[in-house]
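Support reply, case 0932

Customer input (verbatim):
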Amino acid sequence: MSQRLNQIGTVLLIGFVGVALSLTYWMVWGRDALLAQSFNPRLVETERAIKRGTILDRQGEALIWSAAEGLSPSGMPNYRRISAVPAESFSALGYYSLTYGVGGLESVYDRELRGENALSPETRLLNTLLHHPQEGSSIRLTLYKTLQTQTYQAFKGRRGAAVVIEVPTGAVLALVSAPGFDAARLDLDFDRLEEDQNAPLLNRALQGVYQPGGMLQSALIAALLNTDPDGEFPVEQGDQPVKVNGLSLTCTVIPDQPPRTLLEAYVYGCPGAFTTLPSGILSPARLWQMVESFHLTTPPLIDRLEPLTRSAVTPWMNLTDPAQLQAELLGQGKLTLTPLQMALNTAIIANEGNAITPYMVSAIYPPTVNPQDYDGGETDPYRTSPPPAGEAVITREAADRVQAAMREGVLRGSAEGAQPSGSPEIQAHGAAGIAYTGKTAHAWFIGFATLPDGRKWVVSVVIEDSLNPASAAALARGIFEQAR
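Our regenerated output:
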């Protein structure tokens, strides 16, 4: 009898040990696998209980943060993502949704914002055993909150985008896509937003592709001057309209007398002068080399964000139809650019011929650190490494001559009206123009302003369904007036 009881006791002991080991496994090592099951309601509760880190602007003001709103049925806290007002002005930064996942910066910095980067194995185990809520790291951006919101509001319901970049650092000061959406309401509004013909879910600053129109002239002029720094490039009847794709393109501003050189034609935005570039200086192959050196065919990388995938453009030296090459030279062909690319294109000219590398994230603070105690400057111990300087694309002499022409464009040419009022110490340079899609048009402004301390603000603006380049120049002027 006693032997039988010992056997039963042994079996029971083994069973208890097995249950204990199983519970220990599922509570510690297998918890994530269990929670990952789609049928487990604890998955949603656990996700809502994570206090994602705050996204701050360069001055430490909160742009996006997590706000507590009650408890779950099991007593865990619920957090919801909130954006500063107006929330729509920050949609270009991305979104976080329990239903639709994460996008933009919220996606590429998801690990940091969730706090995964700051958890040691010991801390993770302790939090699991004691059911401590998970808290994420905060990230500081290079954006100015006021500049971001006021630039968004300046669109006044129009569709378009604006990018502002500091030269030579490459810091992105504003990244605006209009119209935007309130990321905190994405779960409620997604169906409506998806059906909206204004496409508010499209990040126009990074993903909107537009024909450059006359804005391509900046790179063409730079390529010519890079080959012949002292060249004047005379033209005849440079103010005459030119037809492309059934459209008649004219000067953005009608000059008092026909432009005598390509630089003068550029000042007034006269496309006809660019239909027959000096063949002895720039062949289609050399022109295409310029396109590639300005990275006009390569979507730029910024803060680990996925580059935009686009269909390849036929190299210009492979075009057999002269009309196709003419359309490309006029910025009315297959080559399309994002507002970010246009800003980086302009930055080469503003930065004395050198490319820059754009970035938005300047510091990452672990959950135990109050980001308000730091300034994100060079002495900030949590500052991220700035990107390396870009390569030389054109000579300084070529860049200086294009800059002079862009200054004339603000004073009396296509970008007249971009000079900030009441800021005589800030000089604006720029060009404005129209690009036609065949059905409608959009207005461009590209340019930069030099601040008293030598820094430069490069600005790229596009306004959809607009035949008025002055509206793009006026929006840029509002940006320059906020230069600090």
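We compared this against your earlier run and they match. Two observations from our side: Residues 209-355+390-480 form a domain with the Beta-lactamase fold (CATH 3.40.710.10). The radius of gyration is 28 Å. Please reopen the case if you see a mismatch on your end.
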